[in-house]
Design a protein that fits this description.
Elements: E1 11-14, E2 17-20, E3 24-25, H1 40-52, E4 57-59, H2 71-79, E5 87-92, H3 111-122, E6 127-133, H4 141-152, E7 156-162, H5 166-173, E8 180-182, H6 193-202, E9 206-207, E10 214-215, E11 218-219, H7 228-237, H8 241-250, H9 265-273, H10 281-293
Parallel strand pairs: 3-4, 4-5, 5-6, 6-7, 7-8, 8-9
Antiparallel strand pairs: 1-2, 10-11
Length: 295
């Protein structure tokens, strides 16, 4: 059997951009689990291997950095000149000072500077997709409107929103097209997003969960606190629990995209291979009971 690629999960449209539903998140490239700086050569190798494995949707942000590493800079170094068809999605709103401390949410008039920071780090003349990351249920019209102006100016191709509630997505759609919604979600985690996934499907909008490998807000496997049913399904398919979780995520709907992140080449290969894992109706029913039982 040949190497499984990201194409095994099928594709989805982010506006006029076609991406494989199995993508890659860059957040974990900048530091190891213990907080020490990642190995630069290894991070670059992981990015290049991801593209070799068919990943054409990479999620990043200017605020993904550690004292010695910047995710955007690693992406630029690894992949520039960028292959045709590669879609890089970034996000603005939050920010960090040079020491890594979080700053208050950017004002609408500060978003252009954040967009330009991403352009500079990535070495691009425009950004494929920019998500507005918000905090809390407050109106986002002023911020999203500022990004819509930058889209009209040609700095951004498409817009999305992140860490939002249903009413905020509707608010954003009234201002400009929303090609994706990026929220924290996974098997048994943030069940409130189930309704949002259905809403996105009805509008042809991608739902892009992050932390889709989380168990009770902790990374699956990191604590060994994996659900017995997930382990059982994994055993029956001869795969890892993390692969089951990724496959379950993709089974939530054709508009659901996965962006698992890792700095480990072996984990990358396993994550991408989950694109080909087909869960049976029986598997999905068992996993749904795990999902619904979560608090």
């Amino acid at each position: 059997m040949g190497t499984i690629t990201a194409a095994a999960a099928g594709t989805w449209q982010l506006g006029d951009l076609t991406v494989n539903r199995m993508g890659f998140g860059a957040m974990r490239l900048t530091a190891n689990a213990d907080g020490s700086p990642s190995d630069r050569g290894r991070a670059i190798a992981v990015l290049r291997r991801a593209v070799e494995l068919g990943v054409n949707h990479i999620d990043t942000a200017a605020f993904y950095f550690s004292p010695l590493r910047s995710a955007n800079e690693l992406i630029n170094r690894a992949l520039s000149p960028y292959p045709e068809g590669l879609v890089i999605v970034t996000k603005v709103g939050p920010g960090k000072d040079p020491s890594g401390e979080w700053l208050p949410m950017a004002r609408p008039d500060q978003l252009r500077g954040q967009v330009e920071e991403n352009l500079r780090q990535l070495g691009r003349d425009h950004l494929d997709v920019v998500n507005l990351r918000v905090y809390g249920p407050e109106p986002l019209a002023e911020h999203f409107g500022a990004l819509a102006e930058l889209r009209d100016a040609g700095l951004i191709r498409h817009l999305g929103v992140s860490a939002v509630r249903l009413h905020q997505v509707a608010e954003a759609r009234a201002i400009a097209p929303v090609v994706c919604v990026q929220n924290s979600y996974g098997l048994g985690y943030r069940l409130s997003n189930d309704a949002l996934i259905r809403d996105c499907a009805a509008h042809g909008t991608a739902f892009v969960p992050f932390f889709s490998l989380a168990t009770s807000a902790r990374e699956a496997g990191a604590t060994g606190a994996e659900h017995d049913e997930v382990r059982a399904v994994a055993r029956e398919h001869g795969v890892t629990p993390a692969q089951v979780r990724l496959a379950w995520t993709l089974h939530r709907g054709p508009n659901v995209l996965a962006i698992p992140g890792t700095g480990n080449p072996d984990h990358l290969t396993q994550n991408v291979a989950a694109a080909a894992l087909r869960l049976t109706e029986h598997d999905l029913a068992r996993l749904e009971s795990v999902h619904q039982a979560a608090t």
